[in-house]
Design a protein that fits this description.
GO biological process, one term: carboxylic acid metabolic process
Family: Belongs to the group II decarboxylase family. Sphingosine-1-phosphate lyase subfamily.
Cofactor: pyridoxal 5'-phosphate
Number of helices: 15
Radius of gyration: 23 Å
Order of helices and strands: HHHEHEHEHEHEEEHEEHEEHEEHHHHH
Largest sheet: 7 strands, mixed
CATH topology of one domain: Aspartate Aminotransferase, domain 2
Helix content: 40-55%
Keywords: Aminotransferase, Lyase, Pyridoxal phosphate, Transferase
InterPro entries: GrpII_AminoAcid_Decarb, PyrdxlP-dep_de-COase, PyrdxlP-dep_Trfase, PyrdxlP-dep_Trfase_major, PyrdxlP-dep_Trfase_small
Low-confidence stretches: none
CATH superfamily of one domain: Type I PLP-dependent aspartate aminotransferase-like (Major domain)
């Protein structure tokens, strides 16, 4: 038996190879308030409730009360009223899935129902369509603003449409879609309208943002993640419906067996109370004014970075940010953003590469949190140095022969052996493990159309995610 101390030491050693989760230098995936004591409070609350089970709220009424209070906080922040109903979920994807499921289940008369969404909507909705046998109709966004086009969205509605989706803001670019006209068009045809505010819902109410929440006529549901800008531990999001009747189709119940009658408001059955308790404690601790200060700090940092990016030779902000997300891209052909991302990582900053799609060129995404406040000049100085280094290195050049192989690949017929050969030909090696620089991988993936890129990425991750048998473990 291995001692607890040795196991914790080993875990700490392994964590040294991860991106930092605190300090504001990882500008995707993690959210840091920068405030002392918040993580400790969350950890203690999590430990107190981790063994409870949200499967049966009558068995653990403490967790039911925490969930209801979190829903109430979200409803008060996001335009909810006396009839608003909500659910705490495990994250934004589950909230999106449930919003789609409720819309589908509410219209059993519609064969292969459709949802209409802008090209910039999160792929969680495509996942929902895949899981639930629906059709996702993606509509091109305005090529300049990169926001949803209300006229085009309205034109895409038909008798099979059961849901319309807009973002507040879009993840890729930080742009707030025009919610009001899209929701009005949906309401005129009796169609639900869901607002994906997973990343912006706890920030935008504290900024000078256009109306986007349940107070907007026609909006029937909205999702906000607590583990994003509410700075709670991973595993909590809130899905709000304008009233309980809209939420009801989301529930699954079964009494068709000899055991207990199962009733689930979420995709999960058993749910640890740990994340719920941790979120409840953090939200109550920080309070409305505390979150307003954090949102304003992140917004100031975002605007300062945007100004600095635009003043950097070779770079530009892709589109003016409406919230605390930023996308930067090259302003000339001499700078490769994928190489720039590697150079920034070498300087201790993670900026997330995003591939070109439609009017959006290849770019780097930054999720700016309150922890970055005061470090803007340091980031911009490293960014300028990274630009110089990336220019000196030049863009990754893919051999014409490899490019031809990629162009000829059929994503539905690609074998793992073919993928291994492609990696080896690109100089990336045929075995598992992470490459030291991702620009060669991203340059290769950028050659592939989206369907092929999906398959290539799945194969790449499949090679990373391999079992380590007990005999091979440290």
């Amino acid at each position: 038996m291995t001692s607890p101390e040795d196991l914790l030491d080993e875990l700490r050693r392994r964590r040294t190879g991860d991106l930092p989760t605190h300090g504001g230098r990882t500008l995707a995936y993690v959210f840091d308030s920068g405030l002392d004591g918040v993580d400790a409070l969350a950890a203690q609350a999590h430990a107190l409730a981790s063994s409870t089970n949200g499967l049966d709220p009558t068995a653990f009424p403490s967790m039911l009360r925490c969930e209801n209070e979190l829903v109430g906080e979200a409803a008060a922040l996001l335009g909810g009223g006396a009839h608003t109903a909500g659910t705490v979920t495990s994250g934004g994807t589950e909230s999106c899935l449930l919003a789609v499921l409720a819309a589908r289940e509410a219209r059993p008369d519609v064969p292969r129902p459709r949802m209409v969404l802008p090209d910039t909507a999160h792929p969680a909705f495509d996942k929902a369509a895949h899981y639930f046998g629906m059709e996702a109709v993606r509509v091109p966004v305005d090529p300049v603003t990169l926001a949803a086009d209300p006229s085009a969205m309205a034109a895409a509605l038909d008798d099979r449409t059961v849901l319309v989706v807009v973002s507040a803001p879009s993840y890729a670019h930080g742009v707030l879609d025009p919610v009001a006209p899209v929701a009005a068009a949906a309401a005129a045809r009796g169609i639900r309208c869901h607002v994906d505010a997973c990343i912006g819902g706890w920030v935008l109410p504290h900024l000078d943002a256009a109306p986007f929440d349940l107070s907007v006529p026609g909006v029937t549901s909205i999702a906000v993640d607590l583990h994003k800008y509410a700075y709670c531990p991973k595993g909590t999001s809130v899905l709000l419906h304008a009233d309980a009747a809209l939420r009801r189709p989301q529930y699954f119940a079964s009494a068709a067996w000899p055991g207990y009658t199962m009733v689930n408001p979420t995709m999960q059955s058993t749910r640890s109370g740990g994340p719920v308790a941790a979120a409840w404690a953090v939200v109550r601790h920080l309070g409305r004014e505390g979150y307003a200060e954090l949102a304003r700090a992140a917004r100031r940092s975002t605007l300062a970075l945007a100004e600095g990016v635009d003043a950097t030779d070779g770079l530009r902000v892709l589109v003016a940010p409406d919230s605390t997300l930023l996308a930067l891209t090259a302003s000339d052909g001499g700078l490769d953003v994928f190489t720039l991302a590697d150079e920034m990582l070498a300087r201790g900053w993670y900026l997330q590469p995003q591939f070109g799609f439609g009017p959006s060129p290849a770019n780097l995404h930054l999720t700016v949190t309150a922890a970055l406040s005061g470090q803007e000049d340091a980031l911009l100085a490293d960014l300028r140095a990274a630009v110089d280094a990336a220019r000196a290195a030049g863009p990754v050049v893919i051999d014409d022969g490899i490019a031809a192989v990629v162009a000829a690949l059929d994503p539905d017929a690609l074998t793992p052996e073919e993928f291994g050969g492609l990696l080896a030909a690109a100089g990336l090696g045929g075995g598992g493990g992470l490459p030291t620089r991702m620009a060669p991988v991203n340059a290769l993936l950028a050659l592939a159309p989206p369907r092929l890129r999906e398959r290539l990425t799945a194969e790449f991750f499949g090679r990373l995610q391999q079992p380590v048998l007990p005999a091979e473990q440290d």
